Records
---
Amino acid sequence: MNALEINNLYKVYGNGNVALQDVSLLVPEGSFFALLGPNGAGKSTLINILADTVNASSGSVSLLGHDLFHERAWCKRRMGVVPQEIAFDPFFSPREVLKFSRGMYGQKADDAWVDELLERLELTQHAHKITRQLSGGMRRRLLVAQALVHRPKLVILDEPTAGVDVELRKRLWDFMRELNAAGTTILLTTHYLEEAEELCDQVAIIDQGKLITSRPMKELIREVASSSLCLRYAEPLQLSDEDKSILSAFSPRVYDNQLCLTLNKQDSRSDFDTVYQAAKQRFGTPVDVSIRQEDLEDVFLRLTGDSS
Ligand code: ADP
């Protein structure tokens, strides 16, 4: 069973911006799923369509086998979305926000669960303040609590840890891991690729509105990630257009004194020796050579060509 089945989804905004083009994606039930892409890729558009704050232009989505666009009420009760934008009634307290939200989902009060959420999201001490008095980080945590208050089957988090300090981020992820282990499907977008690699068992990358890849995280890292040969020189390097064109098969990257070249496993030309000789011919003998295994960040940059 899939938690989400997204089929041929398109979104064209009123001003003609094409944000999603024919995106089809399966999110397996019980997965911890990372949706990645550079700025402007269409991640928020996709999440906002799921959250019902943006209308799709065409395509279909089903949640646990139910049509999202035609069975909204059923789906909303089983989905918790943590949006990027923070909007609370400024005069409600966190506890009131949570109680009220349960009511909105038509569920009866569950004080024990509300208390646990306040505790886990480190809001207990602030539970009686009005939300206007909370810091940005506290409001962000309250958004997470609010998305969980009706015990959804699918939790969607749009950049949940932006501006949240490292320690708290770790505790937030520990909590998400527990929920995931108990059967909740989690879909998240994040800029912290290390975090995605560590947490998620599935990954999809979108770029310019199109799906580039969707597969198990381990498989992506194993199949797509390759090694880089890094050559360090005494002086900073600069690649001329000619250098770039000669080395283009190896995706050359320069970091000050260092030149890194990708060793592409599928391409016999780019074995260690060829790459080394090509670099040596252009720039002379390096002072140091190292091999680096690519991580998700490298793969992401290579697949999307994003250098920001
Ligand atoms: P991401 O979340 O990956 O950064 P977005 O979904 O925010 O990407 O944006 C995808 C594309 O849609 C971008 O080109 C963006 O400029 C455009 N876009 C987003 N929201 C709107 C909107 N309300 N009106 C018009 N264009 C939009």
Note: The first helix runs from residue 43 to 50.
---
Amino acid sequence: MRNFYAEISQATTNGKKLLAILIDPDKFDKTKTESYLRKIPKYTTHIFVGGSTVENFKTEETVDAIKAKTDLPVILFPGDYSQITETADALLFLSLLSGRNPEYLIEQQVKSVEKLKHSKLEIIPTAYILIDGGKECAVQRVSGTKPISQSEVISVVNTALAGQFLGKKLIYLEAGSGADFPVSEEIISEVKKAINIPLIVGGGIRSLEQQKKAYNAGADMIVMGTQFEN
Ligand code: 1GP
């Protein structure tokens, strides 16, 4: 059986850069799955599925539609526990460490256990860190938490390290979907220097230039969503 985390970790060790395309089930037209998959970059390595608020059953429908048309790993990136579906390959088991809302630090995780305890989904503990992307994003709105300012580099680094010390296997720096500006190269590079687990960066990355900057600064995986919507 494939181990999706081991693959991400191996790619990180080998310096192979990864690209995940994020699909929000609420904005996805499953009848257009094929044309959607044709327009994403050829070097895409993963599909993430999730959104801040998703209608019941839409996640499962979306995962099934994608899996019918591609062999790329489909990884859940859920906004809440209702979005967990068995048909995906793996789950980013997120804890919003930048915030101080117990609902997104531990409560949602406890609520998800009934679904997960007999599941074959690969569970990947992930430290999710929200950083100010220039405007209020959905994560901020839904979680009722504040992002960390881009100027508070030490605070971001320490939050990421706290995540690693807690045993998280991935650090995800999030500027928010549709952010005005992505996570700065300085933050990416300082976090990367401090941690020894793979680093994911997303939010507000649209151009090839922005991708290159994030990779060069130390992102192991970039997540892009908005750019490929519609
Ligand atoms: C959001 O990091 C992702 O969770 C992707 O953001 O939609 O801005 O590409 P964008």
Note: Residues 14 and 210 are 22 Å apart (CA to CA).
